[in-house]
From TrEMBL:
SUPFAM superfamilies: ALDH-like. NCBIfam families: MMSDH. GO terms for molecular function: oxidoreductase activity. The lineage of its organism: Bacteria, Pseudomonadati, Pseudomonadota, Gammaproteobacteria, Oceanospirillales. It comes from the Bacteria. PROSITE patterns: ALDEHYDE_DEHYDR_CYS (PS00070). This is methylmalonate-semialdehyde dehydrogenase (CoA acylating).
Length: 499
């Protein structure tokens, strides 16, 4: 099987990097090398930024209607090529094909939302705000934008960034994850096939050096980041020092509250899917279930459900979860499971040593479940990013709310209940940015903004929805008065009154 050589994308063309540093991209189910990706040189990053800066001069002038038609073409191409994109995701990330197809669908939602740019980027007008004075606002592009994405959603996360940035008139430099870049690159090719002009969308690859260069670069006006809290915090501070706008969606520890009045089978199936789907490699995975009152009696059913889940390669369509992305990820998850045992959590289901017939080298960890977890334990404090579910039992809804609010993260939480009063109380008192009510993974549809909070987010504006339009544009306010040709001045006005 030939090994792909991942190019950069600069000035509308795939470009082979001249870097001496390349990294293997490995199929996590087999350890076969499927591609090689460069760690671009500083000069290559400069080239990409310069291309975007040059292209901005003309792209910002392109009419909204033409930008809309490009996005319409792009969404049609993504829909047509969904099987191809999903297969590339599965080959390099490891998630199951149905899950990968679902990821492409969530990315497609954002592109579809960008197709509404002719109404999303409208300003406001106050006619005759003062005597023959009109005041109006314009939402204009910033210039060159940039995005740095994590490995876990190589299609959805870039779609959280460049479609709306470009649709609003900016140009873009994207740095996808070096762990699974092929699907992202195919997405970029489709964007150019849809009609995005040369230089409007550029791609570079690399590690911390490239990310830091992007954060520091004076010609990049805004940066969107999705990844770990450690990296996001460092890039946020560097971007602030460079005077650029920044949004950072970072780590999480999401909780699923189960009330005793919930539909038992629906709640259990939902929490298991949200905890173990994609092998737990989701920033919105519910990695903690909080059983309230008599719901603690459901633990045995949750355990049996976890034991009954199927582990297999991503190409096995009936598999519930595939491998972790790398041997290093597997080693880390198994190390944290061992730490949970040592610290006194009750290991009900152990996914270590998981083997899959025909795939002896795969990075497989099976569903793992701890009971009697407390807030002091490592398995609770750290974001495991693997198929590990922590079970906490409390007496009341108040206890559940207090427990969740004490956690520093605020990405997402959910509750399963049949009580409208309980749901309303929960959504009012919980201090978390995204809430699901009988919905296990509360990522909102793309025309609403992604609103993680507290330790899970830096920056005031998140991806998608109205917040993304605000993030990728600057507001200009114009105060205008036009005089009749024969109008005679009434004299000098030295006050601030518009008169």
């Amino acid at each position: 099987m030939p090994v792909r050589e991942i190019p950069m994308y600069i000035d509308g063309q795939p470009v082979t990097s001249q870097s001496q540093a390349w990294r293997d991209v490995v199929n996590p189910a087999t350890q076969d090398v499927v591609a090689r990706v460069p760690f671009c040189t500083a000069d290559e990053v400069e080239r990409a930024v310069a291309s975007a800066k040059t292209a901005f001069k003309e792209w910002r002038k392109v009419p909204l209607g033409k930008r809309m038609r490009i996005m319409l073409k792009l969404q049609a191409l993504i829909r047509e090529h969904t099987p191809e994109l999903a297969a590339l995701i599965t080959e390099e990330h490891g998630k199951t094909l149905p899950d990968a197809e679902g990821e492409v669908g969530r990315g497609l939602e954002v592109v579809e939302h960008a197709c509404s740019i002719t109404s999303l980027q409208l300003g406001e007008l106050a006619d005759n705000a003062a005597n023959e004075v009109d005041v109006y606002t314009m939402h204009q592009p910033l210039g060159v934008g940039a995005g740095i994405t994590a490995f876990n959603f190589p299609i959805m996360l870039p779609c959280f960034m460049f479609p709306l940035a470009i649709a609003t008139g900016n140009t873009f430099v994207l740095k996808p994850s070096e762990q699974d870049p092929s699907s992202t690159m195919r997405l970029v090719e489709l964007a150019h096939e849809a009609g995005i002009p040369a230089g409007v969308l550029n791609v570079v690859h690399g590690g911390p050096e490239v990310a830091n260069q992007i954060a520091d670069h004076q010609d990049i006006k805004a940066l969107s980041f999705i990844g770990s809290t450690h990296v996001g915090s460092l890039l946020y501070n560097r971007s602030a020092a460079a005077g650029k706008r920044m949004q950072a969606m970072m780590g999480a520890k999401n909780h699923c509250v189960v009330m005793p009045d919930a539909n038992r089978s629906q709640a259990i199936d939902s929490l298991l899917g949200s905890a173990f789907g994609a092998a737990g490699q989701r920033c919105m995975a519910n990695s903690v279930v909080v059983l309230v009152g008599e719901a603690r009696e459901w633990l045995d059913d949750i355990v049996q459900g976890a034991r009954g889940m199927t582990v297999g390669p991503g190409t096995q369509r009936d598999a519930d979860l595939g491998p972790l992305v790398s041997p290093q990820a597997k080693e880390r998850v198994e190390r944290l499971i061992t730490a949970g045992e040592k610290e006194g959590a009750k290991l009900m289901v152990d996914g270590r040593g998981c083997t899959v017939e025909g795939y002896p080298d795969g990075n497989f960890v099976g569903p793992t479940l701890f009971a009697d977890v407390t807030a002091e334990m490592t398995v609770y404090r750290e974001e495991i990013f693997g198929p590990v579910l922590c079970v906490v039992s409390v007496d009341t809804l108040d206890d559940a709310i207090a427990f969740i609010n004490a956690n520093p993260n605020g990405n997402g939480t959910s509750i399963f209940t049949n009580s409208g009063w309980v749901a309303r109380r929960f959504e009012t008192d919980i201090d978390v940015g995204q809430i699901g009510i009988n919905v296990p993974i509360p990522v909102p549809v793309a025309y609403f903004s992604f609103t993680g909070s507290r330790g899970s987010k830096l920056g005031d504006l998140g991806p998608n929805g109205k917040q993304a339009i605000a993030f990728w544009t600057q507001t200009k306010t114009v105060t205008a008065r036009w005089f009749e040709p024969e109008n005679v001045s009434s004299g000098i006005n030295s006050t601030i009154s518009l008169g």
